[in-house]
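Continuing the batch. This is chain 6 of the set; chains 1 through 5 are on the previous pages. Same settings as before, nothing changed between runs. Recording input and output for traceability.
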Amino acid sequence: MDFLSLQEIHHTYFTKTSATTALSDISLEIGEGEFVSFLGPSGCGKTTLLSIIAGLLEPTAGAITLEGKDVQEASKNIGYMLQQDYLFPWKTIEENILLGFKIDGSLNDSNRDYALTLLEKMGLKGVEKQYPKQLSGGMRQRVALVRTLATEPKLLMLDEPFSALDYQTKLKLEDLVSNTLKSFGKTAILVTHDIGEAIAMSDRIFLFSSSPGQIHKTFIMPDELREATPFNARNHEAYSSIFQTVWKELESLEPANKH
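Output for chain 6:
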């Protein structure tokens, strides 16, 4: 049994005057511990699909199961990390990372210790009593990752989590997130516009076409890239030819440029 299974997902947005099909016939399987990316032109339904997988949106048709359970039942096992860190500015870093436990009423000494240990592992020891505005963008995203991991979700959704960061911080954070998820054996889905990021971080890349969103092609990354850190993967000799291949496929999906 696959860890995450999507069967013939369709989604249509209805208004009083129109119907827009955002996703059509999406079927895919993701194994436990796998890191996959959704890549594609703007408007191809990547974020809509992420919302459906997270149980935030009910698809018009189709079924999604996580470990054999309907995703609506399993939604508490899903963690989200977004482009914005969404830390509460009036709460300390410690209060922010314990929020998941507070919300579901499960906060105790054991999970508080676990969250603080995670913070230390992310190189953030000593910031517990500080507020988000006292930290850099990269540090805040690390706090957001701790908050996501603290409740031990089985599946992580990463919706362009590095796109607001400067390039150097982004590269460091890619490595940190990748190493952390591997060490915990986590399953993750990354939505990104960045081909390089998708290649460097993923086991597989699903390339979407748009209007409506469909899986156009699946790229399986070679073992030598999958086993490397994202930073080293970008410097691997196999990287540039894969980049060119994915780039050409993505170009073929873009509407012809008007001159």
